[in-house]
Amino acid sequence: MQSKIKSADFLFDVTGVFMLLVHCFMSFYGVANDILPFWAMVFFFVCSRTGLAGVGHYHDHRKKDGITDWGDSLFDMQYVGASTIAFDGHSIIHHS
Prior knowledge:
mainly alpha
């Protein structure tokens, strides 16, 4: 069972990294070059931001070792204005 959990965690991390890379690509290149129509871009960002916040929430509850908890700050992604400073308030204080 431990190996299945470790394998599932790895696949979750691979999916999370892929989502983050696609989100960053669309945030910069996609917006600058109008890859999608406005309505599709809004739908994409609502889904990707919510999904990445879910990745961050899972990482908040994961064992902390400085490597596998790389996604902790993604939990605060939904708090757009405060996402760069809220990491220490919500993720570290509340979820540690």
